[in-house]
Specification:
Helix content is 27%, strand content 25%. It contains eleven helices and 23 strands. It has helices at residues 11-20, 66-69, 86-109, 121-133, 151-165, 217-221, 250-256, 324-338, 348-353, 382-395, 447-466; strands at residues 2-7, 25-30, 73-75, 116-117, 137-139, 143-145, 169-172, 175-183, 186-193, 201-205, 207-210, 231-232, 236-245, 260-264, 271-279, 282-287, 292-297, 306-315, 344-347, 372-373, 408-416, 420-421, 434-436. The strands form six sheets. Strands 5-14-15-18-13-21-19-20 form an eight-stranded mixed sheet. Strands 7-2-1-11-23 form a five-stranded parallel sheet, covered by helices on one side. Strand 8 (175-183) and strand 9 (186-193) form a beta hairpin. Helix 3 crosses helix 11. The protein binds flavin-adenine dinucleotide. The site of flavin-adenine dinucleotide has 42 residues, from helix 1, helix 2, strand 3, strand 8 and helix 11.
Length: 484
């Protein structure tokens, strides 16, 4: 029987496994995290902790399937600009077909009815007019917001169904893959316990799917075979988490939940966009061990009076600079240094006036995350901040009040993406039988497309095992750098 290694059981790995569930092969699944039923809700949310633990925890760290356990918003539209770049790889129709499959799976396993947010013709006319007058571009999307509170049940139920239908799965939870060696016709996986390392083990496989997410992308670059892949440098997004009153945004929230609005800044000609809106949600720290970022999430039942969303400026670099991730991490660490180790928060009015925020005690918007008051301008490049302020001023024409002095800005919210890897339409790399899927391939930026890439890899392997075992893939170059 052929053997398949699946490294990483996050959003993409789970859907790859679902696709491969009853295949005639032995599948070994490796994940640093604990088994699904042992994955826990955020200790800060539960009131058990007030600050993040010193080590990144499995709730928020991107190496631990963050998005499908935290907030769990799934973009369901095949868009050329939102959620990843699979549109470029497989085209609109093929992408939409797989996204529909992802939607169906999630809805089938949801413990409660989850509404699909789908703007109607009146909403679309409304936003098109408003956005144009504000000099912004609206990008259509349908989405599913499962909420952090429903995420464990959905993921566990999908995995339970896969287990029930398959007898050839071997799970290695709490196991870190240390090395992946590519040998002629074989993949050697060396792994060890994550929490209490002992003697590493090694197993050989005929196929390998790497689905280690953004958190595992550094590990991927350290593997010997990595230099033999066809790669392009990735991009970074640098920005802030904005927290404002839910009353300022209620009309767009009601119509769209999260309208994707893009803006080209006059100051620097940079593309600025909103990302990850959380109406009535909470700002949360995102602990990466070396540095702490901010993020946001919302729940289906517990609500705040605020809305939070990210405003991000995307940057790509040209030679000689080759390390965009280091650039964004350096900015993040500078913010953390000023804040005594965590995020900074500043009122928009203070940022405009060039002064630090000293207290928020009488501020109209009360923070949902306790962060150090300070001056973000001491750490962030002026170019980025000027573009973000322009963005908020434009957004204020659609959501009056958003750009008021009392609006809170949290820093740093930085997203760095792995190098773009050339893959076939089934996510197979230029190394035959090696598939790299999800965010670690850089083709995806969210749960929906990550899951889709897993389906594509599963379909590809199924065709090979069933039909032509040694088929060499046709490779496609990643053409353009679209935004999530
Ligand atoms: C806080 C936060 C909130 C987010 N919210 C959303 C959201 O609401 N909606 C959305 O669409 N996107 C969201 N995202 C983005 C989303 O998490 C990713 O796009 C998505 O999870 C990518 O799926 P993936 O399978 O590529 O990686 P992941 O889901 O990150 O899974 C990677 C898996 O690989 C494992 N792993 C890594 N390295 C190793 C190793 N060496 N050995 C063994 N296992 C390993 C990890 O434990 C993890 O389980 C969020 C991200 C963060 C950080």
């Amino acid at each position: 029987m052929q053997k398949i290694a699946l490294i990483g059981l996050g959003a993409s790995g789970l859907f790859a496994l679902k696709e491969l569930g009853n295949i005639e092969a032995e599948i070994h699944i490796f994940d640093v995290g604990p088994s699904y039923e042992k994955r826990y809700a955020c200790p800060i949310d539960q009131g058990k902790l007030t600050v993040c633990p010193p080590k990144a925890c499995s709730y928020c760290a991107p190496g631990q399937s963050a998005g499908s356990w935290n907030d769990f918003k799934v973009i369901l539209s095949a868009s050329p600009v939102i959620g990843g770049r699979l549109y470029d790889l497989i085209g609109e129709q093929e992408l939409q077909t797989r996204l529909n499959k992802v939607r169906q799976t999630i809805l089938t396993h949801a413990p409660v009815e989850i509404p699909i947010v789908k703007p109607d013709a009146t909403d679309l006319e409304w936003i098109k007019r408003k956005a144009t007058l504000a000099n912004m571009t609206y990008h259509y999307q349908e989405l599913l917001h499962c909420g952090s509170d429903n995420a464990p049940a959905i993921n566990t139920s999908i995995l339970d169904e896969i287990k029930a239908n398959s007898s050839n799965l071997v799970f290695h939870f709490d196991s870190k893959v240390l090395n992946l060696n590519v040998k002629p016709d074989k993949f050697e996986v060396t792994f060890d316990r994550y929490k209490k390392p002992g003697e590493p083990n090694m197993l050989s496989f005929d196929y390998c799917i790497v689905s280690v997410g953004r958190g595992g992308s550094h590990w991927l670059t350290q593997q010997d075979f990595y230099k033999n892949l066809d790669i392009y440098p990735g991009q970074v997004d640098i920005g802030l988490r904005v927290e404002t009153s839910c009353y300022f945004t209620e009309e767009v929230d009601r119509r769209f939940y999260e309208p994707k609005l893009y803006y080209r800044s006059q100051h620097a000609n940079d593309i600025v966009r909103n990302f990850c809106s959380n109406p009535k949600g909470f700002v949360t720290p995102e602990n990466h061990r070396d540095y702490v970022l901010v993020n946001g999430h919302s729940k289906m039942y517990e609500k705040s009076e605020n809305n939070n969303f990210a405003v991000l400026v995307s940057k790509t670099f040209t030679r000689p600079f080759k390390n965009p991730q280091l650039y964004s991490q350096t900015i993040a660490k500078l913010v953390n240094m000023l804040a005594g180790g965590g995020p900074l928060v500043q009122r928009l009015g203070d940022l405009r006036a060039g002064r630090r925020t000293k207290t928020l005690s009488n501020n109209l918007i009360q923070p949902s995350l306790e962060a150090e008051c300070g001056d973000i301008a001491l750490a962030f490049p002026h170019r980025i901040l000027a573009s973000i302020i322009e963005y908020l001023d434009a957004l204020d024409k659609i959501c009056p009040g958003v750009a008021s002095d009392a609006t809170l800005l949290y820093a740093p919210e930085c997203k760095s993406y792995p190098d773009s890897i050339t893959v076939s339409k089934n996510m197979e790399t230029t190394i035959p039988n090696l598939y790299i899927i999800g965010d670690s391939s850089s083709w995806t930026r969210g749960v929906g497309q990550a899951a889709t890439s897993g389906i594509l890899a599963g379909e590809g392997i199924k065709q090979k095992i069933a039909v032509k075992p040694n088929l060499i893939p046709v490779s496609i170059h990643p053409k353009s750098q679209h935004l999530a």
